[in-house]
Write a structure and sequence with these properties.
Blueprint (H helix, E strand, L loop, with lengths): L4 H4 L1 H4 L19 H8 L4 H18 L1 H24 L6
Helix pairs in contact: 4-5
């Protein structure tokens, strides 16, 4: 019997929907419930990292072609940005 990601990570998913902003990406946004739980010790960083890794793997397994297209687009954008930076003489500090 197989269990879903939500069942295996109920401790992680209980924090979803509690962030200050409904479109929170759980990275550096103020009022993020996931970051608050990690900082308070209620949720281990390793547990969050495991959740993210398995979520990425599930997305890949569900839609390999879409995942690879999105990855190629990201790489293309990074390459384009890098060329623009080099052309303009680098990042100014």
């Amino acid at each position: 019997m197989s269990i879903g990601l939500g069942e295996a990570f109920a401790d992680v998913e209980q924090h979803f929907g509690k962030c200050k902003f409904s479109d929170c990406k759980h990275q550096s946004e103020p009022g993020c419930a996931i970051k608050k739980a990690i900082n308070s010790g209620e949720l281990l960083q390793e547990r969050w990292n495991s959740y993210l890794q398995l979520k990425r793997e599930a997305i890949f397994a569900d839609d390999k072609a879409g995942f690879l297209r999105a990855k190629a687009e990201r790489n293309k954008s990074i390459s384009k940005w890098s060329k623009q930076i080099k052309k303009s003489g680098g990042i100014k500090r």
